[in-house]
Amino acid sequence: MKSALVATFQDFRRILGVCPCCGEVFRLTDLMIAYRAKPAVTWLDSLEADEGRQQRVEDRFAEDEQRIRELAKERGRRALPRLLREAEPLFDPVDYIVFDGMNASPAVTRIVLFDGPALGHARERVQRSIQRALEAGNCEWKTVRMGKDGRIQPERGR
């Protein structure tokens, strides 16, 4: 059974009016009454104001977060070439080249070719051939430069 208050509000939806300014038909429940003086603030007004402030703070935070993320991406892009100069992953025919002493002192004291255990005969043959070449002293140093056009050329005079 409906309460009298609920029935009254449901009846208000059936009462229609016509706007004297624009002639638009409206329901009584949609009516917004204008007061000459500002009405007293209710708890609902305070709650809505707090929600509005919170939404503005969240929006500002989201904008700041996006800006900070973009700045961090740019810093990462600028730092990437420096990081790549320090770590040299190869993955074929060995996993890494380790420059021992590079970060601790100004001079590299040893270069280590680092690879995990061979999981197949072909990889094992490659590892053994690299080991034999190094033990026999069959290695040399060459410096190459990449030009602005992308071509790689050996450096002369060394």
SSE inventory with pairings:
Elements: H1 4-14, E1 16-18, E2 25-27, H2 43-86, E3 88-89, E4 96-100, E5 110-114, H3 121-135, E6 144-146, E7 152-154
Antiparallel strand pairs: 1-2, 3-4, 4-5, 6-7
What does this molecule look like?
The chain has 158 residues and is α+β, with helices and mostly antiparallel strands. The protein has three domains: 30 residues, no CATH class; 41 residues; 52 residues, no CATH class. Helix content is 44%, strand content 15%. The chain is built from three helices and seven strands.
User: Gap between N and C termini, in Å?
Assistant: 100 Å
- Class by SSE composition: alpha+beta
Largest sheet: 3 strands, antiparallel
The SSE order reads: HEEHEEEHEE
Number of strands: 7
Distinct helical segment count: 3
**Helical content (DSSP H or I, runs of 4+):** 40-55%
Strand share of the residues?
15-25%
Features:
158 residues, alpha+beta, 3 domains, three-stranded antiparallel sheet, two-stranded antiparallel sheet, 3 helices, 44% helix, rod-shaped
